[in-house]
Amino acid sequence: MKAIGILTSGGDAPGMNAAIRAVVRTAIYYGYKVYGIEKGYRGLLDEEFVEMDLSSVGDIIQRGGTILKSSRCDEFKTAEGREKAVEILENYGIESLVVIGGDGSFTGAKLLSELGVKTIGIPGTIDNDLAYTDYTIGFDTAMNTVIDAIGKIRDTSSSHDRVNIVEVMGRNCGDLALYAGVAGGAETIVVPEREIRTDEIVSKLRTTQKRGKKHSIIVLAEGADIEGGALGLKNALTVKDKADVRITVLGHVQRGGSPSAFDRILASKLGNKAVELLIEGKSKRVVGIKDNKIIDLDIDDALSMEKEFDQDLYEMAKILSI
Ligand code: F6P
């Protein structure tokens, strides 16, 4: 019987389990054997394989994290490492591999496909930093986690007339900051894609203070180009505006938690589609969602696309926070 392998790689994201469940159940439905590969490409090289059945993925659709665990692996980045991986997969009779992760994980899948392994990538990252898909699995849940935190911080911010900086994840992509900032009614949103000077933030604070609003929420993406990061911004605001500033770094809280309905449904559709593509004999493809339709495209094409920043939403956020 032909076997399909599945692994999760890179940073985990809520909804990965729902995707694993969809892959395993669809593959078994069509008569395939499925191996779960633990700890991503590291586990592939260490042969951490476990045969999955219908009940291995029972009771996981609502769970955050990934039951298959995840890691980053330097050995797999070498040609020798990948040749070893192909040999191991052959020994297990695994012809196809489903990789759930971000761009680095997809590059690994593409390189494996060049060595004859059929691969399909499913986008799983809270960053929403893949250009070819409107949403990645985990983004919606992380956004809701951030909104929940902003709401709580806003309560205490208003009680104390403070400026609260909320630092969110996003090394190169400001989607989490932008979308959560808009939904959380942030006064200022700072993202890696757009430059903003501290003087602009100060003048905005003064404008809102003049109309009687004494507290303010600044949502700052971790990768934003602001001198000294959150602490630098705090110091600048303290000196220039004499503001009472606090910083909250949300950190890995954003990576955990039960996935939202949106992420569960997206993950289920993408997992199901990934197996269907393998059955059709397709390889070196990624699945995603565009204009509310499930799509698939070549990994190279997907990775060469440049992520478009939502300038309209960014401008709208500025108007709504005057
Ligand atoms: O999953 C992506 C991401 O959340 C980035 O936004 C963040 O910088 C990074 O992962 C941190 O990952 P880790 O702590 O696992 O290295």
From TrEMBL:
Gene Ontology molecular functions: 6-phosphofructokinase activity; AMP binding; ATP binding; fructose-6-phosphate binding; identical protein binding; metal ion binding; monosaccharide binding
Annotated EC: 2.7.1.11
Top-rank EC class of the record's enzyme: transferase
Reactions accelerated catalytically: beta-D-fructose 6-phosphate + ATP = beta-D-fructose 1,6-bisphosphate + ADP + H(+)
GO CC term, one of those recorded: 6-phosphofructokinase complex
Residue sites binding ADP per the record: 21-25, 154, 185-187, 211, 213-215
Binding site for ATP: 11, 72-73, 102-105
A Pfam family of this chain: PFK
Binding site for substrate: 125-127, 162, 169-171, 222, 246, 252-255
Keyword Transmembrane in record: no
Gene Ontology biological process terms in this record: canonical glycolysis; fructose 1,6-bisphosphate metabolic process; fructose 6-phosphate metabolic process
Description of activity control: Allosterically activated by ADP and other diphosphonucleosides, and allosterically inhibited by phosphoenolpyruvate.
Record carries keyword NADP: no
Active-site residue numbers: 127 (proton acceptor)
Record-linked InterPro entries: ATP_PFK, ATP_PFK_prok-type, PFKA_ATP_prok, Phosphofructokinase_CS, Phosphofructokinase_dom, PKF_sf
Binding site for Mg(2+): 103
Record pathway: Carbohydrate degradation; glycolysis; D-glyceraldehyde 3-phosphate and glycerone phosphate from D-glucose: step 3/4
Location of the Phosphofructokinase domain: 4-278
Compartment(s) where it occurs, according to its Swiss-Prot or TrEMBL record: Cytoplasm
Homology family: Belongs to the phosphofructokinase type A (PFKA) family. ATP-dependent PFK group I subfamily. Prokaryotic clade 'B1' sub-subfamily.
Functional note: Catalyzes the phosphorylation of D-fructose 6-phosphate to fructose 1,6-bisphosphate by ATP, the first committing step of glycolysis.
Subunit-structure text: Homotetramer.
Name listed for the protein in its UniProt record: ATP-dependent 6-phosphofructokinase
Source organism (scientific name): Peptostreptococcus russellii
Gene name as annotated: pfkA
